[in-house]
Amino acid sequence: LIQLIRPMDRLGQLYRSIRQALVDLDQLVELLAEEPEVRDRSGAVPLPQGPGEVRFEAVSFAYDPRHPILERIDFRIPPKRTLAVVGPTGAGKSTIARLLFRFYDPSEGRILIDGRDLRDVTQASLRGAIAVVPQDTVLFNDTIGYNIAFGRPDASQAEIEAAARAAELSGFIARLPDGYGTLVGERGLKLSGGEKQRVAIARAILKRPRLLILDEATSALDSATEQTIRRRLHEIGRGSTTLVIAHRLSTVVDADEILVLDRGRIVERGTHAQLLARHGLYAGLWRRQAAEQERVG
Ligand code: ATP
């Protein structure tokens, strides 16, 4: 029995760590047959078409009831606009993204997309409408082409190649032994953090999602590539309502609104210029990062 339990336990851990990384997971959930945290309720309907408005209404959440993580979070992202969430480590930034993707349900309050409570729509339709560029992309043990097309299995080879070009991956793929047919993942070619992130970006470009979640999308890239990628993301972002979970403030300057989160509460909000003028937590973080960058050169 022990021999059976150990691998199951490992799978459980793997599942949890992947979920933490915010991957499109419905397939994997089934595969691992673990009790999912949320289920479709009876009568759940597909998310209807809509412009992509996101609303958090007095959302509170705790992983463990003794430790509240988010407290009465309110915000609205108008269609095709960008909201960035910043704040110290552990503030609850990634948790906001996980709730929007409905890995968990709020303990109080509600989350709406185009006026629909996430609890009333099927998870498949919700996840079909969202693309996530996570901090750490998990690749499937399959070809790099399959990994890019994941989320849009009907994509043509030409569309896959166009997405790879837009994500600055095509030169890299051209140098691989089997091109788009090269096996990647644990049992294939190991990609660097930046390469994996570009696969996630290509996936998002291909998916043209109603909502885009960027979890610090440019963290693993060198600065020249980062510039280009940021421009590309901006272009996808123009067609999608975007939530950016940011650690480096340089990635949020252009956001339509920035929320500053501290210990689960919104302590400041506004545009970059408004927040600098407040001389509060954001202005302090900004000064510290600017000084840091000068030191590093
Ligand atoms: P960082 O900038 O370090 O990524 P963050 O602001 O994104 O931090 P979250 O990942 O949202 O923070 O985590 C908020 C709090 O929730 C942290 O205290 C973290 O330890 C806790 N937490 C995160 N995931 C879980 C989980 N699956 N179970 C229990 N607690 C968790």
Automatic annotation (TrEMBL):
It is found in: Cell membrane. Residues 54-288 form the ABC transporter domain. This is ABC transporter ATP-binding protein/permease. It comes from Benzoatithermus flavus. The chain holds residues 307 to 603 of 603 of the full protein.
